[in-house]
Amino acid sequence: MKSLLPLLIGVLLLALLTWYCAYHVEQDVLATAQQTLNDGGHDWAEVDGDGRYITLAGYAPNEDAAAAAASEVLSTDAVVRVRSEVRLHQVTDSDMVPVRAGLAQSGMRWVELSRQDRTLALSGVASSESAKAEAAGIAVSLWPWGPVNNDIRVASSAPDRQQPACGTSLADILANSTVHFEFASADLSEEARGQLDQLLSALGDCPEATIRVESHSDSVGDPASNLTLSRARAESVTSYLERRGVDAERLSAAGYGESRPVASNSTDEGRAENRRVDFRIGQ
Question: Of 86, 88, 90, 265, which has the highest C-beta tally within 10 A?
Fold first, then answer.
């Protein structure tokens, strides 16, 4: 029996060494696979595995990204097989928030966004082909979930060409503040009346253009009440502009409640950004 003891110890040590080496090889393979994904811009993906067999998980922005991630992992040294448990990100209207914010930061508040499942559509009137292309470039960079349809129309007449400039002038006036109302009311504040008086001069730059006033809320409170209040506030603005001499035929009002945020509603700052009035020219 004593003669077998060294043999048993040797077998045990060999088994431990084999396990140790296999474990570290597996960890090296996983680390390399994860680094490959990160380097390829697939930071949404996670890897797990057993030896050289890799399981890929996470929420991919789209099917092409899921396929590319699996292909890149499979091309990694020592990986023999990749099993995909990847799911697709479920797109909602909140995914348009970064796109709206990016366009606004570039002075393109005139771009209108809409979504059909994973497809984002851009509309509005651009002053030039380059402005249209720039808007699309911003949207594509911030919308990884699917196709982007660029339905922006390029101005083809003098009145048309006034519209983007007019929209930019309005955005500049409202750049650091929005039209404010009395608390939980559609009554314009004194400050808001002063802002609208400034906007009147900008509207003179596009005397033939129509103006759609859009009012938005944050997500605090009842959604139906927010929608009703936002509609009343938009109508309050158009009524004021009418009284100040803007032709009623040029004006329309729309309230969207909390459905079109431009920032997160999880912070005070974000909610403040979402409580806003937008002016759409020629749309």
Answer: 86
The answer to which of 35-44, 56-65, 108-117, 184-193 has the lowest mean pLDDT is 35-44
Decide: 30 and 48 in contact? Cβ < 8 Å. Answer: yes
Strands (DSSP E) contained in 61-168 are: 81-84, 87-88, 112-116, 119-123, 125-126, 148-150, 153-154
The matching CATH number, chosen from 3.40.1000.10, 3.30.1330.60, 1.10.10.60, 3.30.413.10, for 157-283 is: 3.30.1330.60
**198-225 per-position pLDDT tens digit:** 888 778 777 777 888 999 998 998 999 9
Comparing CA positions, the residue from 21, 38, 30 lying closest to residue 82 is 30
- Looking at residue 216, what is its pLDDT? 93
Supply the pLDDT for residue 137: 96
pLDDT at 14 over 60: no
- For 4-88, CATH number? 3.30.1340.30
Question: Domain locations in the chain?
Answer: 4-88, 91-154, 157-283
